[in-house]
């Protein structure tokens, strides 16, 4: 920063602006691994979910907006932008707007640390894994604020359910990743991907993968754990009283979360960007990510919802114990001398 | 000019803010306005609203909450231990695994207690 001089003439300001806009860091933040990529992928996922669910239910799904209805998310967005924002009379409208904004900020934050290709990461953090988990655990508080602030019974119940579900499944989610940390000895997501060049972690960490995937379903409030917005009981859960753009932002934040959690599964267990060289690395990464996302959607199409007590008890009695078992299995692997396959 | 990780996170969040905030303001300005007691009532499946929604709810999962606090702290320490696992000798590794195995006993007891108090 020492050589940076304060520009004085218009030409200097212009050249500085051009230098900033064409710099790799700026392009990474705004376009590829950054904002535009996450936004467009989340919008694409709303279309993908409707199409896949339609296939599961022997329907066709969105059809008219663009080719195979691919422009449907844009049509929905424009429609919601011009809709009236109705807030209940006793609701805290300012708080709801702020929370919608906060939800978006929290939902996008993990994208900073996830590598989409070799060196294609906004911030190559040494504590990337902890950072991602820390950011994800901010979701329940924002969601509870939305539920409380909208002053509606459905919203409050949805917010409370969302809170205890996400909090309960955080522990198994963390502990299922411990095996990977033991094998690689690092929390840097780029190094974790590089350690999987020989063999993906889904093979030695199959127990961890199962626990992590289940916990991710619960964190995403997806079927079979979609109790916070169980349609027959709670209408739309904590999103009941959001409308117009606030609803659009909340909805987009949930799909952003789905996208980035799928990206996290890809990074941790499916070898990240690694794949045969005939396609570029980001293409492999996105292909694996959308595959995981469609798996989540297919599960939504085919499974019933679990009961609340079963949801909580299975987190503590089954998933936690399986995650512990995974730690013991990993320790055995390392003591047998097999850990060198994945050492960085 | 290399920026450190936290500045990059801050810049990224500012970009997200700069897109989302105008979007919300735009929706606020463009959407129709007007008050109507029926439209402003909270959604209760067509029923008339019965009182405030900020009621007191029973938290029947309190034992789970206590366990969460304990395991949250344990998980953090486990990560620091896991980082050093491959480099530590066996004599220092197995102690923590023994601790994990012992941890299962109070967990089982707490689950037994919470199972008895559960009345969903």
Structural commentary:
- The complex is a heterodimer of chains A (344) and B (120).
- With 344 residues, chain A is mainly alpha-helical.
- Chain A has one domain.
- The longest helix of chain A has 32 residues.
- The two termini of chain A are 33 Å apart.
- The mean pLDDT of chain A is 87.
- Chain B is mainly alpha-helical.
- Chain B has a single domain, classed as NADH:ubiquinone/plastoquinone oxidoreductase, chain 3 (Methane Monooxygenase Hydroxylase, Chain G, domain 1, Up-down Bundle).
- Chain B is 64% helix and 0% strand.
- In chain B, helix 2 packs antiparallel against helix 3.
- The interface between A and B is large, with 84 and 62 residues.
Structural class call of chain B reads mainly alpha
The average pLDDT score of chain B comes to: 79
**What percentage of the residues of chain B does DSSP assign to strands (E)?**
under 5%
Question: Stretches of chain B where pLDDT falls below 50 for ≥5 residues?
Answer: none
Distance between the termini of chain A: 33 Å
> What name does CATH use for the topology of chain B?
Methane Monooxygenase Hydroxylase, Chain G, domain 1
Low-confidence stretches of chain A: none
Give Rg of chain B in angstroms: 26 Å
Shape of chain B: flat
CATH architecture of chain B: Up-down Bundle
Helix share bin of chain A: 55-70%
């Amino acid at each position: 920063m020492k050589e940076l001089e304060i520009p004085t003439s218009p030409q200097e300001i212009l050249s500085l602006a051009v230098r900033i806009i064409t710099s790799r860091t700026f392009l990474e933040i705004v376009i590829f691994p950054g904002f535009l990529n996450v936004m467009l992928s989340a919008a694409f996922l709303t279309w993908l979910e409707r199409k896949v669910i339609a296939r599961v239910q022997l329907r066709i799904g969105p059809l008219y907006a663009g080719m195979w209805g691919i422009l449907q998310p844009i049509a929905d967005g424009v429609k919601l932008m011009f809709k009236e924002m109705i807030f209940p009379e006793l609701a805290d409208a300012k708080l709801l707007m702020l929370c919608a904004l906060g939800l978006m900020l929290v939902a996008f934050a993990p994208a900073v640390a996830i590598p989409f290709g070799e060196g294609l990461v906004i911030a190559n953090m040494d504590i990337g894994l902890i950072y991602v988990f820390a950011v994800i655990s901010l979701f329940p508080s924002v969601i509870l604020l939305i539920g409380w602030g909208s002053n509606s019974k459905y919203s409050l119940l949805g917010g409370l359910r969302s809170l205890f579900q996400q909090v309960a499944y955080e522990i198994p989610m963390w502990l299922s990743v411990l095996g990977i940390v033991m094998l690689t000895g690092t929390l840097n997501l780029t190094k974790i991907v590089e350690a999987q060049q020989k063999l993906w972690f889904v093979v030695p960490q199959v127990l961890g993968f199962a626990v992590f995937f289940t916990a991710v379903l619960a964190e995403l409030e997806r079927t079979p754990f979609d109790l916070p917005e169980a349609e027959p009981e709670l209408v739309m859960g904590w999103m009941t009283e959001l409308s117009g753009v606030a609803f659009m932002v909340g909805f987009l934040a949930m799909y952003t979360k789905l996208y980035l959690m799928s990206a996290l599964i890809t990074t941790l267990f499916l070898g990240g960007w690694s794949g045969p060289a005939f396609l570029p690395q980001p293409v492999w990464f996105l292909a694996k990510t959308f595959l995981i996302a469609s798996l989540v959607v297919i599960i939504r199409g085919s499974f019933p919802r679990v009961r609340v007590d079963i949801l909580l008890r299975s987190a503590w009695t089954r998933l936690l114990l399986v995650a512990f078992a995974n730690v013991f299995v990993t320790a055995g692997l390392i003591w047998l001398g097999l850990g060198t396959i994945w050492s960085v | 000019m290399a920026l450190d990780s936290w500045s990059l996170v801050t810049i990224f969040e500012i970009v997200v803010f700069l897109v989302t905030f105008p979007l919300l303001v735009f929706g606020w300005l463009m959407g129709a306005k007007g008050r109507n007691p029926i439209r402003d009532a909270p959604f209760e499946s067509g029923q008339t609203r019965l009182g405030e929604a900020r009621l007191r709810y029973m938290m029947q999962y309190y034992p789970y909450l206590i366990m969460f606090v304990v395991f949250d702290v344990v998980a953090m320490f486990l990560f620091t231990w896991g980082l050093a696992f491959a480099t530590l000798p066996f004599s220092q590794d197995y102690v923590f695994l023994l601790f994990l195995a012992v941890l299962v006993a109070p967990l089982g007891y707490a689950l037994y207690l919470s199972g008895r108090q559960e009345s969903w």
